[in-house]
Amino acid sequence: MEDYVVPAQTRIGHVHLKVSDLKRSLDFYNGLLGFEVVMMYGNDAAFVSGGGYHHHIGLNTWHSKGMPPAPGNAPGLYHVAISYPTKKDLAIIFDRLRKERYPIHGASDHGVSEAIYLEDPDGNGIELYWDRPKEQWPHNKDGSLEMYTRALDLNSLLNEIN
Questions:
Q1: Model's pTM, two decimal places?
Q2: pLDDT per position as a tens digit, 37-77
Q3: Domains (ranges, CATH) in the chain?
Q4: DSSP string, 35-83
C-alpha cells in the first residue's frame, strides 16, 4: 500500500450544523457574524457564506428542532474555526461581539494564529481567528513548528481598527 499525503491545496469546504431554532441561528450567523444568506431550503434549513461562495455553513433543524444542545462531555464536534483574512478583520468582528455583549469564552495567541472563542446559540464551539503569515510562524530549535496558547492582548487587537 502506497503512502498517500493529502495535497496542499486541500481545504475544508463547509460545515453543516444541526440547530434547534433556525431563526435564532440565522440571527447569530447572519445578523451578528455577518455571513450572507445564500439560500433557504424550505423552513428547516439555510445556507450562509462569505464572499459569494455557495455555502460555508449549512444550518438545519431536520433532526434537532426544539432540542437542547448536545452534551459537552460527549463525542462530537469540538468547534468550527472561521478564518479571517487579516488581523484587522478579526478585530472588527471582536469589536462587534464586544459591543453586542456576546459572551466570549477565551482569546488566545497560538503563535501561528490569534483566536477568539465563543459558542453559537446551540452551544456549538466557534473559533474566530486569523493566521499570521507563514514566514512569521514560530519554530523550535530543531525546525519543527511551535504552537502554544498564550493570552491574546485584546486591547492590541482593537488597536487594529483605531
A1: 0.93
A2: 999 999 999 999 999 899 999 999 999 999 999 898 999 99
A3: 13-64 (3.10.180.10), 80-162 (3.10.180.10)
A4: PEEEEEETTTEEEEESTT-S-SEEEE-TTTTTPPPPPTTSSS---EEEE
